[in-house]
Amino acid sequence: MKRKNLFLLVLLVAQCAMAAVNGPAPPPFLKPGDKIAVLSPSGAHTYNIVDSACAVFGRWGYQGVIGPNVGARWHGFAGTVEQRKNDLLWALRDTTIKAIMCADGGYGVINVLCEVPIEEFRKNPKWIIGYSDITGLLSSEVRAGNMAIHGNMCYWLRKTHGTDRLSQILREILTGEFPGYVIRGHKYNVKGTASGILLGGNISVFTDLAGSDYDFLAKDYIADKDVILFFEDTNEDMPHVDRMLQQLRIRGIINHVKGVIVGRFKGYSPTNGWSSMYELLNHYFKDGSIPVCYDFPTGHFADQNYPLIEGCPVTLTVETDSVTLDFNNPLAPNILNE
What we know:
Helices cover 33% and strands 23% of the residues. By secondary structure, the chain is an alpha/beta fold. The strands form two sheets. It has an eight-stranded mixed β-sheet with strand order 10-9-8-7-12-13-6-14.
């Protein structure tokens, strides 16, 4: 058997094996020449970041295609709801498009989701890439049964030309090479080991989806699942983050969480006697019943925003001096030390 055909067979077997796990399956991995669409489902942005991302895709061996309405403007959004909805449906329905990278975050995805049934995400699985407000689309993909990628978007590809290590890991994920991460310890970390499917992202976005068809933390969806939860945010004050955490508790979500990954927060001021966001969160998680990792490199610091695979089975190991996050894939992990 030719080497290329053997590799594709291995990928197919890996996908089938993960599909049998209690959780989402990976969409088809990319092959040379496949199309990656760029969409703008949220806030307005400069057009040049889209062109730059497509140039990077070309160097990676793919075709970058741009949504028909990318570049539009409407009251601070990247076009009207109708324009952004049409671009999302175009990318989801086009069977030649194998992945979608969002140009930027901001605000506005939830307006689009109100117009796009969850079935649209189920019909034609493909990788969706983004973070921040794009957490709404990632959650939708997971609810539709597909893994998705919480990671950097077009701005970062423009800045680094796709040659940095984080972009290369994203590229590897798209071809079936899942990563493993080892990071430094933190004084608030709670030791332990746990496994489950990885879910999370921007906490203010995924808590806004509560009770909807797009909510990957819906109780009926996670009832038979163990969850490793990660979250981060920007420009949210500490009382608001506290309220969102309590919402997860009162919904019973925390009962299904076997491990917690606290990402990086920015744009807030210490308040109410707490010295930091981490001190506040440690007040709730310090009992030692589940492993908890603080200061994981995910969030609104693009150079420290490690690609994370939503819906993927993972093993989280928290030690005194280090934290390991392994994505459970039959293919060999690619270890990155921070």
